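User: Last request for today: this protein with magnesium ion, please.
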Amino acid sequence: MELKVGIIGLPNVGKSSLFNSLTNLNIEAKNFPFCTIQPNIGIIPVPDNRLQKLKDIVNSKKVIHSTIKFVDIAGLVKGAHKGEGLGNQFLHNIRETTAIIHVVRCFNDRKITHITGDVNPIEDIKIVNTELIYSDFEICELAINQIQKKNRNKKNISNLELITLDKCLKHLIKNSPLRILNLSADEKNIISRWNFLTLKPVIYLANISEDNQKNSDYYQKVLCFIEKENSKILKLCIKKESDLMQFNSKEYKKLSQSFDTQRSSLDKIIQASYKMLNLHTYFTVGKKEIHSWTVPIGTNALEASGKIHSDFKKGFIRAQIIAYQDFILYKSENKIKSLGKMKLEGKKYIIKDGDIVRFLFNI
Ligand SMILES: Nc1nc2c(ncn2[C@@H]2O[C@H](COP(=O)(O)OP(=O)(O)OP(=O)(O)O)[C@@H](O)[C@H]2O)c(=O)[nH]1
Ligand SMILES: [Mg+2]
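Assistant: Here's the final one, the structure of the complex with magnesium ion:
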């Protein structure tokens, strides 16, 4: 499955406006529920200040960032799992993502329609989560039936998948998301093909109003509510960010500085999403360009080499590795080499975040 972060929530809570701010795109974000029907997809660079530090040392001409994919998905309503508000299609869009940003309205604005009439972040979260739980429940039941049917003629089957699905079903029936169920890595792995929505990692994004004070109540409530979930929460005033987008980049820079740390909040969202996808970065460094490459945590050198070029993988000999901190400290490859801090590693070496890598290959 492709690695991407889905932006979800009730209708009209600011999902498309957030998507626009993150991607610098200009898709429709108007004051009516279900403004978005088809998912919008945007690919954006992951901010990483290590790149600039490397550039300053090597004096390279170009910097190429890793990227991350965001999908802006239509709003969910009560009954979505039964097809309300095109719910099944929207739930399918969510199923195709790897991780979720759940936007929660924490702002008061009479002009902006709230689908249930009142701003109530906890109830809003519950509506969305319940739909995801119901949908998982149905899939879980279906999966159990399918497996039982397949094994009908076999006696005494000990099927880990079936046992795990049963454990999930018992948990879902309590209206509880699977991400708080205690599942081992093996159990998670064996049920991964069912792609459960409530097993996807989530960041709750509190969309606060310009006047922070007024909304701190809403935010605090969300904070308390999600504590038991062990999920991450971030806050942002999406409107402020949308307003800033109207200016050109020079004006934006000036304004955003005066608007405290708004841009850095966007960066935080991107970085947190990247982490949620279980990804990290290695670098290739040269005069022509500094390039950051994305790999899932736990990737070995051979797989990582294929990320750059299939020839690197085919003709892989060794990987030259310098730790990021050493590069920053000693600033010269020769010096690092003479200190014995440049390592020659084989195919099975597990790439670490920030490694500066040169692949030696023969084709
Ligand atoms: N006051 C205020 N208005 C906001 C904020 N965020 C979004 N809006 C407004 O709310 C309306 C809906 O925003 P969208 O970004 O289209 O919301 P959505 O969640 O994508 O809506 P659907 O696609 O219909 O589900 C727009 O008129 C936005 O300008 C906010 O932080 N404060
Ligand atoms: Mg939208």
